Each structure stands twice: as structure tokens, then as C-alpha cells.
Fold:
Amino acid sequence: MAKRVRGRVRRRERKNVDRGMAHIHSTFNNTIVSISDMNGNVICWASSGGQGFKGSRKSTPFAAQMAAEKAAKIAIDHGMREIEVTVKGPGAGREAAIRSLQAAGLEVSLIKDVTPIPHNGCRPPKRRRV
Structure:
């Protein structure tokens, strides 16, 4: 029988950063909000799926709002006050996530769209026939 090993649980240390960046990756299926310091080291993140939304509800603006609220709350606990927002992707939760970050008490100094645009790359999905 294997011996039970008691591992030490490491608590996340509080980082004291007042400025940072929020990366909102909004796809057709999900929205992921990552908040990092100015060097790009991720402090916290949250996603629509992580908030308990399943299936098509993950892609809604409300789910993106909840994810952004959670990430903003953790970032404020780390001492963050001002953020620059970069938005990537075509999803529905882009604007809702930005509004939610502002409503949570973070001052948005810059909003930048970094959605990659193909120079005629992959073939897009076929049209839906409903």
C-alpha cells in the first residue's frame, strides 16, 4: 500500500501591480479574459466556461460579463487600478467584457483590437442552411 504524502499547499502571493493589461479573447464559443502586468506575466484569468456556463450559453455577452467581473475582482485584490485592454476575436462578448471591467472599478486607458486578419488564409466554414 502506498504511503500517504502530505504536500505543502502553496498560497498565491499577492502581487502589487497598479497598471496592467487585460487580454479579451472572444471566440464564437467562449470568452477568455486574462489580466497581466505590463510585462505580460498573467496575474489572473477567467472564462465563460469557468463561470459555470455550458454549451451555447458560454458565447453570450452575459457570460463574458461574468468572466470579466471575476477577473477584475481578483486583479483589484492584487492592487491593480489601471488597465490597457486588447481584444481579439469575432465573438459576442467583446464589448460586454470591456464594459464589465470598467464597471468593476478598473480605469481603462486604452482599447486595442488585435484580431488577426488573414491575407486569404484558411477556407472559411460553409454557410449554415437553417
Notes: The mean pLDDT is 92.
